[in-house]
Amino acid sequence: MTTPAPQPPLSADLVLRNDRPEIERAEQALLDAVAAHAYPETSAFALRLAFEEAVINAFRHGHRGLPPDTTIRLRWSVDADRAVVTVTDQGPGFAPEHVPDPTLEENLERPTGRGIMLMRAYVTEVRYEERGNQVTMVYDRAAEESRKRD
To answer: What gap in Å lies between CA 123 and CA 84, rounded to an integer?
Structure first.
């Protein structure tokens, strides 16, 4: 019996408008790549949630005050071991360390910080680059599977 050849990495580099069908097509392409590499459903869920939060934050917060047709850049790469998703908006950026912790009692009713908290909860690594207008999320399969076992 022969072992099937490993699936090559799949990737995309897209410019997205704040258009729900366009965003959904990009999300589905990411999920198709995840499925092609046989990620479990829980991994697909985690990546979908992180993707949606990052894109929503880019349009809602990153582009606050910018023309409605301002685009974001989405790059992703998926291989057998990890998925990397990067979202870059055209806004001025922000300092993520200054976003209030939404789990603290004094912030429970504030509508900010939940998206960042969810991204950090569902992917292995979240890092902000440049001036705070670019987020990169890394989902490491081995690390996540190990974390679930612990």
So the answer is: 10
Domain containing residue 144: CATH number = 3.30.565.10
pTM of the model: 0.88
Each residue of 42-77: pLDDT tens digit?
Answer: 999 999 999 999 999 999 999 999 999 999 999 999
Put the strands of the sheet holding 82-88 in their side by side order: 10-16, 72-78, 82-88, 134-140, 125-129
- Residue numbers of the domain that contains 134: 10-149
CA 123 → CA 36, 48, 51, 103, 144, distances in Å? 19, 10, 10, 18, 8
In a domain, 1, yes or no: no
**Does a structural domain hold residue 135?**
yes
* Selection from 124, 101, 121, 102 nearest residue 49 by Cα: 121
Report if residue 2 sits inside a domain: no
